[in-house]
Design brief:
single chain, alpha/beta, D-Maltodextrin-Binding Protein, domain 2, nine-stranded mixed β-sheet
Length: about 250
Amino acid sequence: MRRLITTTARLVAFAFVLNAAVADAEEIRVLSSVGIKAVVEVLGPQFEQKTKHKVTTVFDLAGVLKTRIEGGEPFDVAILTPAFIDELISKGKIAPATRTEVARTGLGLMVRAGAPKPDVSTSEAFRKTLLGARSITYVTTGASGVAFLATVEKMGIADAIKAKAKPAGNGDQVNANILNGAAEFAVLPVSEILPVKGAELGGVFPAAVQTYIVMAAGVNASAKSAVGREFVAFLMAAPNSAVIRDKGMDR
């Protein structure tokens, strides 16, 4: 009888501790640029498993998310380009001390799986590849599209590229243009190219004309919980650098 009472007491104590842990678990809402989506989709669940907190993620273009935050959309953590994070800090939306540059990714050309890989070995080869392309698709309002147009402007071929452009409103439309054959090449961050089934990384921009898209995180200035800061710290943890690299990004 004494052993039964002791066992029962232990089970009750364990249940109490378990319920207390569940009660302490919180849910955070992360608004993230699609530029780092592949990373967040891996590290988010790992954070949940480690901390028991719940992570709800919303992915979109960085500019779209910035506008939604300015309009009052609730969030705990935002992962956008540094310039947008800085603007939100200036407007009191993000706590300045939480601004953290998480990772960066270069631009690349995406091709349909099995298609010949374009020559991007040098700046001149890259220039010839772009001029010889049947059509090129990119997100006009995305950071990668803006950077690409600035690059071809500097290369003196902006008019020729615009004449064969297949502009898109988001990454899904860009992917579709490649998969259905509407475009020969797509310009996207490498981190957005690698996960696309049916497509491949044709090559990265040469170093002389490469542009890096940086992803920075920030926590809501009105946050009363520390979980958002914990999530950002988890993204920056040294062991998670392997995930960053695996998804086409670096620190």
